[in-house]
Amino acid sequence: MRQPTLSRRHALVLAALPLVSSCNRNTKKRIGVVPKGRAHMFWQSVHAGANKAARENDVEVEWNGPATETDFNGQLQIVDAMINKRLDAIALAPIDKKVMVSIVERAMNQGIPVVIFDSPVDTELFVAQVATDNYKAGQLAAERMGEITGGKGKIAIVAVQVGAASTMAREQGSVSRI
């Protein structure tokens, strides 16, 4: 059964709360939330969910992401700025699973807990991950397409973003069922 999307978005901020609760600061805790991009409706709904969870848990969310989901240099700069501000935690949806490794490890090595969401990153140096099983989602999509087409015809996979672990896993899952 699919969980409501809002609760998954709440999970990002809530996953970071225990990490920042032990900080010795008298001000509100600050959690950076970095999506893959700002324009797509999905990321706007993640923003709304993070803000709602922040209000409910008396923390501040610093929201910033690159304009497009392919601007990994912009995402690196945003996370770098959050590290330099010494935020209490960072929730990150990595654009690229390899390119983002060094910035995630840098944050963790500087004592800033990182929660990964949406897509994985090629390091184990983070405190939590909230994501869909994209391989399984790809398998389910291929199975459903097979049902709809009666097992006949051709199916094309379109708009896979190279380097984005979530889309690569969905493609691999789909191909495994075709």
Beta-strand content: 5-15%
**Secondary-structure element order, as H and E?**
HEHEHEHEEHH
Residue share in helix: 40-55%
What is the number of helices?
A: 6
Flag low-confidence runs.
Answer: 1-6
Distance between the termini: 24 Å
By CATH, the superfamily of the largest domain comes out as Response regulator
Query: In total, how many beta strands?
Result: 5
Sheet having the most strands = 5 strands, parallel
Provide the gyration radius in Å.
17 Å
What name does CATH use for the topology of the largest domain? Rossmann fold
Number of domains: 2
Shape summary:
elongated
By helix and strand content, what is the structural category? alpha/beta
CATH architecture assignment name of the largest domain: 3-Layer(aba) Sandwich
Strands in their spatial order, largest beta sheet = 2-1-3-4-5
CATH first level of the largest domain: Alpha Beta
Compute the average pLDDT: 86
